[in-house]
Fold this sequence. Notes:
By secondary structure, this protein is α+β, with helices and mostly antiparallel strands. 55% of the residues lie in helices and 15% in strands. A three-stranded antiparallel sheet has the order 1-2-3. The two termini are 18 Å apart. Zinc ion binds next to helix 3 and helix 5.
Amino acid sequence: MIGISYLTEAVSKKADLSEEQTREVLMAFFETIQQKLNENESINFKGCFLIKRKPEPFKGSKNCTKHQEELEKLSAENKGGGFGIFSEINKVIKHCADCKSKKEEIVKNTKFTDRLTIQPAKELWANKN
Ligand SMILES: [Zn+2]
């Protein structure tokens, strides 16, 4: 495993900066990432990776009351019917303003855990130099 000392030395050489300057930049970089993650922002380092805070698992309905009831009714009437039974109602839900605002409210009220998910970009594995 490599640490800050190695990174500072390696980046300093690649960027042609002094180790002191490089260390300042790296620390400012990580401070910015830390700050943004604390504000629940995702960090998209294009071509490298995406870092996101893991949201707390959502419990409850993701649709308006009317459509939630319709979904539950449909589900109860078609036990073991597969996802095909929902295709019609899902088309309606897609255009329902109440369902849309419910989803926006869920996004707004999402709480986050202290865990992170890191998704590598495809390019990350392509540039092996
Ligand atoms: Zn709805």
